[in-house]
Specification:
410 residues, Growth Hormone, Chain: A, 17 helices, MFS_dom, cell membrane, membrane
């Protein structure tokens, strides 16, 4: 596909991803308190329902990935818009905790087929090994999801209330997200990314004899080393845990470290731009390096920032926010590029879904578990996140930089 078509795909999918993240993952931060107040439940219960949605997305993710391997991402992402809209309507009309949990379970189904993992799998299905830059491109755009989503949700909630805010997001999925995802390139039956001519000929003869469609070539993942898969799953789980823990508890951590409230808010506001800066660095300086190098450099940044804040105190608050944000921005890209570089494009969607199951579970547990650490340790909880970050660095160093497995579509 020509560069103009790729740019259009990046802009289309990046915009759709911004909507998906803003209306799901970033929604509870703004609406949890008014939801809890009107429903007569605790805010913790609202976040518990959100966590259940994340657990649902973890276990459904591999099936969504398998569907993208077989059919391409266009139908799966379009379906996620319908599911997101239904879940948001469910939130708007829930009257108690059971309706709330049911709606977030529906949202979990949408997240399984509508967030980054599905988007990355869609791009790999379209572009094969040549997907690194387009993956970076959509994360550059969708990196502003909280920047757009939080102010918009807050303004809508103040103007219309939280229920109508959910309905507005549902309408945006139907009127904006659905048309965007339906406009993505349609995967033709003969599309099989990165297949060599001899392998394509052999596969064509095989599928002609069996009567099966050729686009199933990428539906079954090639065998991968168990050690590498376990290490990569550990990397994703720990990075998601740290990222979610910081998103939930950063202001509390900074104030416990002696940082004033206004400076804590300012430091927190730096994380989004730092993430984008890290992704620009990946897109520019590091684009020709192996993704393992980018990931290793990025993984060091959170422990370094945490150590600076612990040893230097409030004066290092801005430095911590910038280092954590930049590292998190690059590691988000690594979730898409590392499986591709290490294992190849064949069966990428299903494999990506399986690799991310521990990460989604860690993400669901992070606010609660790290909240306990903050409650008992205060600022010293940063030693916990720094230690987890060091484990990420170790796991990335243990991952061998080997070529992807060979095969017809590898």
């Amino acid at each position: 596909m020509h560069s103009a078509n790729r740019t259009r795909t990046v802009l289309t999918l990046g915009t759709a991803q911004t909507l998906a993240w803003a209306s799901s993952y970033y929604l509870p931060a703004i609406l949890a308190v008014p939801m809890a107040r009107e429903l007569g439940i605790s805010t913790a219960t609202v976040f518990a329902a959100f966590s259940v949605g994340l657990v649902i997305s973890a276990f459904v993710g591999p099936r969504a990935g398998r569907a993208i391997d077989a059919l391409g991402g266009r139908p799966v992402l379009a379906l996620s818009n319908l599911v997101f809209a239904a879940g948001l309507v469910g939130l708007a009309f829930c009257t108690g905790r059971w309706g709330l949990f049911a709606a977030w379970m529906l949202m979990g189904l949408g997240m399984a087929g509508g967030l980054y993992e599905a988007a990355f799998a869609t791009l790999v299905r379209l572009y094969g090994r040549d997907s690194r830059n387009v993956i970076t491109g959509i994360t550059l755009i969708a990196g502003f999801a909280s920047t757009v989503g939080w102010p918009l949700s807050s303004a809508l909630e103040g103007w219309l209330g939280w229920r109508d805010t959910c309905l507005v997001w549902a309408a945006l999925h139907l009127l904006l997200g659905l048309p965007l995802n339906l406009s993505l390139p349609k995967l033709l039956p003969h599309d099989a990314p990165q297949m060599s001519p001899s392998a394509a000929q052999a596969y064509a003869l095989q599928t002609s004899a069996s009567g099966t469609q050729a686009d199933t070539v990428s539906a079954s993942p090639a065998p991968v080393p168990l050690r590498s898969a376990v290490l990569l799953s550990l990397v994703f789980a720990l990075t998601w845990f740290i990222s979610t823990a910081m998103a939930a508890h950063l202001p509390t951590l900074l104030t416990a470290s002696g940082v004033g409230l206004s400076m804590a808010v300012t430091a927190g506001a730096l994380i989004g731009p730092a993430q984008v800066a890290g992704r620009l660095l990946e897109f520019g300086v590091l684009r020709r390096a192996h993704p393992l190098l980018s990931a290793r450099l990025a993984a060091v940044l959170h422990p370094l920032g945490a150590l600076a804040l612990l040893l230097l105190g409030p004066v290092a608050a801005m430095l911590f926010a910038v280092l954590h944000g930049a590292g998190n921005g690059v590691l988000t890209i690594a979730k898409g590029t590392l499986p591709l570089a290490l294992f190849g494009p064949q069966g990428y969607g299903e494999r990506q879904g399986l690799l991310m199951v521990p990460a989604r579970l860690a993400q669901a547990l992070a606010p609660w578990l790290f909240g306990l650490c903050v409650a008992h340790l205060g600022a010293a909880a940063l030693w916990v996140s720094a230690a987890l970050g060091c484990l990420v660095v170790l796991a990335l160093w243990l991952l061998a930089q080997t070529p992807p497995p060979s095969g017809p579509d590898a």
